[in-house]
Design brief:
With about 350 residues, the chain is of the alpha+beta class. It has ten helices and four strands; from the N terminus they run H-H-H-H-H-H-H-E-E-H-H-E-E-H.
Length: about 350
């Protein structure tokens, strides 16, 4: 069915396995590489290899001429004059406009700066005075505000004590009795004798030996005079208040104004320290001074002692001093008193 559908009745069937060679229309083609057929005309010159000066050129000359610019609008290269290349504009000429614009802008800026300086010089003092006045007013206002706030929160203490050292807590009968006992003991301080006097004299004798290498006697200075000056310089020894702890003990507090014994000693050292070194009286080998040297140092030390005696006493305290309740009476602890006076008089 399919065969009779796609074939015509006039076409004969070809057996591909038994068919002969095909016949091409127009005859067989000529084989390649055999050159032109006999009788064929020459198609051109036989060119020499490339670069051979004796051979024929590969391109025949012709009479072509390129168009020129003579009397025509066409802008083509001219054959009568060499070609000219267009040059790029130089950087100097291209940037000329920018430089000019920048120069104008700089000139305006300089002008404004000069005007500002002139105004500052002319009105500077007025501006500073005005600013200082504003800041001063603002500062005073801030201080007043803080003071008002403190009075609002904590009350006005202008009618109270000016110094925290004047503070006295509420006292009962036992507290007042301990305070009175301490005051009575402070009133017994004797500049010419007693435990405090001996404490100061011992301090001076030991320190002058340690520092100067000689005793007070060898240097011609009176240690007792030094002790009298220090103890007598206690211008104030006032018991302020006390706490009765309820167990037979109490602590009473006192304010003391006195001379600084340590400062007094070093003032005396300045009077004879250099003299001892210059005369080989100070060092590892202790040499006893002569009578003449002792006399000189004695005069120098006593003169310095009179000068330092005029010093103003310093206020210290309040210091706490321990008391014991013995036989229904408050008794001051001498050890606690000595330790307190050691601090108050700077015996170190």
């Amino acid at each position: 069915m399919a065969m009779s559908r796609f074939s015509r009745s006039s076409d004969s069937q070809i057996d591909p396995f038994n068919a002969g060679e095909p016949e091409l229309p127009g005859g067989e083609p000529e084989p390649l590489g055999e050159g032109p057929a006999s009788g064929a005309a020459d198609v051109g010159p036989d060119y020499a290899p490339h670069g051979d000066p004796t051979g024929s050129p590969h391109k025949l000359e012709d009479d072509y001429r390129a168009p020129t610019t003579g009397k025509r609008d066409y802008d083509a290269p001219s054959t009568d004059e060499p070609r000219r290349r267009r040059r790029r504009p130089s950087g100097r000429s291209a940037a000329g406009g920018d430089v000019q614009r920048r120069t104008s802008r700089d000139q305006r800026l300089v002008t404004r700066v000069v005007i500002a300086i002139v105004l500052l010089v002319a009105f500077g003092s007025s501006i500073v005075s005005c600013a200082a006045s504003v800041l001063t007013d603002a500062g005073e206002g801030a201080v007043d505000a803080v003071q008002n706030l403190g009075e609002t929160l904590f009350g006005d203490d202008s009618d109270g004590a000016d110094d925290w050292t004047d503070y006295v807590p509420e006292q009962d009968e036992g507290d007042r009795a301990a305070t009175e006992a301490l005051q009575a003991r402070l009133d017994q301080l004797d500049p010419g004798q007693g435990p405090t006097f001996e404490q100061v004299r011992t301090y001076f004798e030991q320190k002058i030996l340690d520092v100067e290498g000689h005793s007070a006697e060898e240097l011609g200075v009176d240690a007792s005079a030094f002790a009298r000056m220090v103890v007598g310089g206690i211008s104030q020894a006032r018991a302020e208040y006390a706490y009765d702890w309820g167990d037979g003990t109490a602590t009473a507090y006192a304010s003391i104004s006195a001379l600084d014994a340590n400062d007094l000693f070093w003032a005396l050292d300045e009077a004879v320290g250099d003299y001892l070194i210059e005369h080989d009286l100070w060092g590892e080998e202790v040499i006893e001074p002569t009578e003449e040297q002792r006399s000189y140092m004695s005069d120098a030390l006593n003169e310095a002692l009179e000068e330092v005696a005029a010093a103003e006493p310093d206020s210290f305290g309040p210091y706490g001093i321990e008391l014991e309740f013995v036989d229904d009476v408050w008794v001051v602890s001498e050890q606690s008193l000595a330790e307190t006076l050691e601090m108050a008089l700077s015996l170190y």
